[in-house]
Amino acid sequence: MGFSHHDLPGRAQELYEAQQAALEDHGDDCDMYDVEASRITGIYDAFSDLPDPDSFGAYTDGLLTAMSKLATGGYETGQTEGGQTTGVASDTLSLVAVAGDEVDDWTGQGADEFHTWSEGWTTGISNQFAATVALRIALNAEAAVWTGVLKDLDNLSKGAVEAMKAVTECNGDDVKLGLSIATAVVGIAAAVPTAGASLSLVAVAGAGLGVASTGMEIYEAASEEPAEISSCCPRCCVEDVEEALGKIKTKITEGEELVIESLQNNIDVINGSWSEFCHPAPSLGGVPRSGIHAYEGMGTYPG
Amino acid sequence: MPTGSGEGFGVEVGRVWRAGAVHLPRVSDTLHEASVPMLASHAPITSRSGGLGKDPGGQLDELQRLIRKGVDDSKDTIDVCGQALIWAAEDYELTDEAARAAYQREKDRLD
Question: Label partner for A18 (CA 20 to 30 A): which of A64, A149, A162, B83?
Answer without folding.
Answer: A149
